[in-house]
Amino acid sequence: MKKIILILFLSFFLFACDSPDDKLSDYEILLKVADTISLPEEISSNIELNNSYKFNQHTVTAIWESDNEEVISSNGIIFPSFEEEYATLTLTLKLNQS
């Protein structure tokens, strides 16, 4: 069974600048959510990739993208091989989208 080496990139998109209910900016909320997300560097079985996260009353949308769908899908499904493979998962977090 192969090991898959994952690199996690985070990107943030803000669709509104106001957070009237909170003292935190949208960017600060996204950073707090990002701080709660971790993935192992190596995997040998499918992993769960959430498509949303909660922070207080906010829902943050998560979009995962794999740079090598032959190794791991954007849904966290791995495709076994006998060689060590590398893939990068990119996570985009969106807050207050219309």
What does this structure look like?
By secondary structure, this protein is mainly β. It contains one helix and five strands, in the order βαββββ. It has a five-stranded mixed beta sheet. β3 and β4 form a beta hairpin. The radius of gyration is 15 Å and the shape is elongated.
Key attributes of the depicted protein:
98 residues; mainly beta; 5-stranded mixed β-sheet; 1 helix
Brief overview, please?
By secondary structure, the chain is mostly beta strands.
Our measurement of the CA-to-CA distance between the termini, rounded to an integer number of angstroms, reads: 43 Å
**Class per helix and strand makeup:** mainly beta
- How do the strands line up in the largest sheet? 2-1-5-4-3
Low-confidence stretches: none
The helix content is: 10-25%
Gross morphology: elongated
Quick one: biggest sheet?
5 strands, mixed
List the SSEs and their pairings.
Elements: E1 4-14, H1 26-35, E2 42-43, E3 52-55, E4 58-66, E5 85-95
Parallel strand pairs: 1-5
Antiparallel strand pairs: 1-2, 3-4, 4-5
